[in-house]
Amino acid sequence: MTGQSIWKNIRDRFRPGQETVIPAPAQKLRLSGKEICIPLHGYQDYLIEMGKQTLILSPAPGITAANHASAYDFILFDPQRYGVGVAHFQRLSPGSTLVVDRKVDYQKQVFSAPRDAFRRNFSVSHSGDSLIFKDPISELGTYVSLAGETQDIPPITLRRRAALKKIREIFGGPLQPLSVAEATANLKQVNELLGKETGHPRDTLGNPGGVLQLPDHVTPVVVGDLHARVDNLLTILSENAVLDSLEKGTAALVILGDAIHPEEPGKLEEMDSSLLMMDLIFRLKLRFPQRFFYIVGNHDSFLHELMKQGVPQGLLWEKYVLSSRGEEYKTQLELFYQQSALVVLARDFIACHAGPARRKISREILVDAHQFPDIVHDLTWNRIRTPAFPAGYTGSHVRQFRKGLERDADTPFLVGHHPCSADGTLWLNAGQIGQHHIVISSRPDRVGVFTGIDGRMVPQIYPVEDLLTWLNGQVAETLP
Q1: Averaged confidence pLDDT in the chain
Q2: Average of pLDDT values for 176-203?
Q3: Three state DSSP letters for the chain
């Protein structure tokens, strides 16, 4: 079939009266006062110009998606920010509409010229096989054009593949549990780093204390419970220039504990994925010693009391580590748990695994937190007070915690540990406590994080794919 015939068939699918346009490569379509439908044909970037604000709408079909096999997402972003470093963006999925509106929370953080963006009533809808651009305000110039040539592989996918290739290089080969000797050597080096880590002051006993202070100049990326989902960590690292920013020293990634122990029914006793997860985390810590951090959670132990749906995961973890890695590795892993911080303090947020201390504290007390079992329990085990959990913390405890750390009343407090529903990944103002947010990064289909953008902790969600299988199935030298 000829190219003209293909476009004729595409045009015939749209309803009469709708203006359907197939722009030429250098053609700018004035959108103001119009609704223009552009049929999808291959992977194509679109340039949107709004006065001083320029945006790119780029295909994001994912790493493992077959080319053009199904409708795919787009990402709307500011090219001055997204891809240059960790930035905010908007996702457009098939069947949805994306509206540029100042009332949409955190949307301002997408733009470098938000005033020009918000002066319009711009929107774009994704029908699955077309994009419908709309701006009913006629007096302001809004233009849409093609950005470059049609791609066989979208630029976002190429960047993510390059990041995954780099992760494989950092790991030293296929992502699979390391040998006993190599894993033990890595863990010893990590423990040596923790003993002299910048921003991690020692307690009064001379050990690494309970507080980690992030430097002000880095963009923080905060990750919740991963629960052995290596694909979720690979997703985070390969999205939004996270790995590139770690390499450049402009970002810091913080995991809020509980990277081990699967949660899916039927897999609670499986420990191989937990071993691989920690091997990857330790490799990343060695590669980025001042930009990759792990905060200890309640699952980060060999406690026999640690149970999940009746399965003694703490005991099983101890037995598995001993049988697969030996006594020396187990001893080093216990030392890692003991030396890891319990609380992250940063310019724009406070974070820990579970909840605030329920007694008055100070920064100095938190540095010595390992000496106070009640504080350790609150930071790693507690959860919001509910009728089912009457011993939990409340908004007054969060306010007291901020006050003890000399933080403003509206400083975001981020925790993991306690999902508020069976299928969510982010909960804002959880428990109706202002600026108290929960992030659980272990869902099988999507992973949530918080990212510092323009002084705000912005929630972001990425779709999850089977990246581990895909990456291990590639030959490193041939990855595009």
Answers
A1: 92
A2: 96
A3: CCHHHHHHHHHHCCCCCCEECCCCCCCCEECECEEEEEECCCEEEEEEEECCEEEEEEEECCCCCCCCCCCCEEEEECCCCECCECCCCEEECCCCEEECCCCCCCHHHHCCCHHHHHCCCCEEEECCCEEEEEECCCCCCEEEEEEEEEECCCHHHHHHHHHHHHHHHHHCCCCCCCCHHHHHHHHHHHHHHHCCCCCCCECCCCCECCEEECCCCCEEEEECECCCCHHHHHHHHHCCCHHHHHHHCCEEEEECCCCCCCCCCCCCCCCHHHHHHHHHHHHHHHHCCCCEEECCCCCCCCCCCCCECCECHHHHHHHHHHHHHCHHHHHHHHHHHHHCCCEEECCCCEEECCCCCCCCCCHHHHHCHHHCHHHHHHHHHCCECECCECCCECHHHHHHHHHHCCCCCCCCEEECCCCCCCCCCEECCHHHCCCEEEEECCCCCEEEEEEEECCEEEEEEEECCCHHHHHHCCCHHHCC
pLDDT of 480: 55
pTM: 0.94
CATH 3.60.21.10 domain range(s) in the chain: 167-478
- Work out the average pLDDT over 399-425: 96
pLDDT on residue 38: 94
Q: Which pLDDT value is given to residue 15? A: 47
What is the CATH code for 167-478?
A: 3.60.21.10
Among 121-130, 148-157, 296-305, 388-397, the range scoring the smallest mean pLDDT is: 148-157
Band of residue 341 on the pLDDT scale cut at 50, 70, 90: very high
Overall average pLDDT of the 343-351 stretch: 97
